[in-house]
Amino acid sequence: MPSRYDPVDLKPGLAARQAATRLLAAVTESRASLDGLLDPAGGNPAFTGLGPQDRLLVRAILLSALRHLRVIDAYIDELVTSPLPEGAKALRQLLRVGAAQILFLDVPDRAAVDLAVSQANGDPRNRRFAGLVNALLRRMGREKESRLSELTATVPPFPDWFVSRIQNAYSQEADSILSMLSVPPAIDLTVKTDPAGWAERLGGTVLPTGSVRIARPAGPVTDLEGYDGGDWWVQDAAASIPAQMFSRLDGLEVADLCAAPGGKTAQLALAGARVTACDQSANRLERLKGNLSRLGLEVSTHLSRAQDFKAPEGFDGVLVDAPCSSTGTVRRHPDIPYTKGPEDITRLTQVQRALLDHAAGLVRPKGELVFSNCSLDPEEGELMVQGFLADHPSWRIKPVDASRWPGMEAAITELGEVRTHPAMLSDDDPAQAGLDGFYAVVLTQE
Ligand SMILES: C[S@@+](CC[C@H](N)C(=O)[O-])C[C@H]1O[C@@H](n2cnc3c(N)ncnc32)[C@H](O)[C@@H]1O
To answer: Which residues does UniProt mark as catalytic (predicted)?
Structure first.
């Protein structure tokens, strides 16, 4: 069963609640991305104006609300005696935040209800509903033990467009994938050396990819041993796979075309490649430089669209870790099913294809081209690559050996591509289980 609690001590104040309500509306009504809203530097003032503790609370409320939004809405709709008025969006958002606290966060029910009622009374749009807010959330608190598990078992966890795409792509495994997507993930670290030693020091376990998986710490991950010394970086185990797929790196010239913030660039450099890291975003390229500097790794950087990046002498290896719908990262970014849609996937496949076509021209004869992204959708992975191969008959898939990562054989497709998803790497504790959804393939020329 998914854990119902995010590991944050919650004593939410009214300002935090108001911010959470406003930001939840921005995500679900205006499709604003949670990362953008919660960016400490350029995020929404309702968030950046809060103190550190309140920020933690707002983040926890939003993550829980979005992970369980359909269940929360179904429960609200079940408890209102007549449907909420169509225009009562502010009321729904307020109830969603209260329900997220009562159902999924470790907040005393009474405190959550009282704050919701105060918030309703302080908002002219919601004042007349204060009695309803009080009655509904109190009842939710009383009955949740019996009702919540029934609702979780019957209500699809995410919007219909998203659920049906997962069901179409993964048939048998779709239910397990969807259920894992509501579980907050552990944290994976890529370590420079000695995974077993770091696993012991940080109380984690070593995964088949060589990553170290640790429980989510109570404080910032940057406080953990080894961060300041540049001994490791945060990177989902699945995200560490594409850079490991090159058959050789030491001493070779490799271009990383969509490089920032540099997780894979760091792996390539650590393995001894001479890396040119290209990205079209100046801000993100600055972050890459900061990350690589902390890790003590040197690479060349290049600010441009990958399609405009020219290198007549070519590279031994090229990595295209393409922009994508990021549906493989919904455990960490549960806003994605609400901020993205099928039209984004169609648009992104065109960008991915343009990147792949251009990258193919940068690979030296006998060189390797690795294409990857963190989407669960075959249109951005398997099908996109089949389209590329149909139009480039001299290219082929270089199959990955299924024994490459013992214990992860299920992640290797019949054609030798890598396809990971959140129901892989099972564990008795769901919070310790799973992988990001990733697609990766090695392409070479005959
Ligand atoms: C999925 S992220 C890459 C993550 C990175 N490889 C890592 O492991 O840390 C995609 C990156 O592609 C960049 N990007 C998007 N479109 C691009 C383009 N046409 N040319 C170059 N970079 C692009 C984005 O700015 C973003 O930094």
So the answer is: 374
Q: Whose CA is nearest to atom 27 of ligand 1?
A: 260
The rounded Å distance from CA 306 to ligand 1 centre is: 9
ipTM above 0.85, yes or no: yes
Break the chain into its structural domains and give their ranges.
14-155, 236-445
Q: Are strands 205-206 and 212-214 parallel, antiparallel or unpaired?
A: antiparallel
Instruction: List average pLDDT for each run of 10 residues in the chain, which is 446 residues long.
Output: 41 82 97 96 94 93 97 95 81 96 92 93 91 96 93 93 97 95 96 98 97 92 96 98 98 98 98 98 97 98 97 97 98 98 97 98 97 98 98 98 92 97 95 97 95
User: For this structure, is 324 an active site residue?
Assistant: no
Shortest-distance Cα residue to atom 19 of ligand 1: 305
What spatial distance separates the first Cα and last Cα of the chain, rounded to whole Å? 48
Task: Identify the architecture of domain 14-155 in CATH.
Answer: Orthogonal Bundle (1.10)
**Considering the chain, what is the average pLDDT of its residues?**
94
For 103, residues 6+ apart whose C-beta sits below 8 A from its C-beta are 4, 68, 71, 72, 75, 140, 144, 148
> Is 262 known to sit in a ligand binding site?
yes
Please tell me the pTM assigned to this model. 0.93
Fold of 236-445: Rossmann fold (3.40.50)
34 vs 339: CA distance, rounded Å:
9
Alpha helices, DSSP H, located in 325-425? 336-339, 342-360, 382-391
Q: What are phi and psi of 237, to 5 degrees?
A: -55, -40
Q: Which of 23, 356, 374, 442 is catalytic?
A: 374
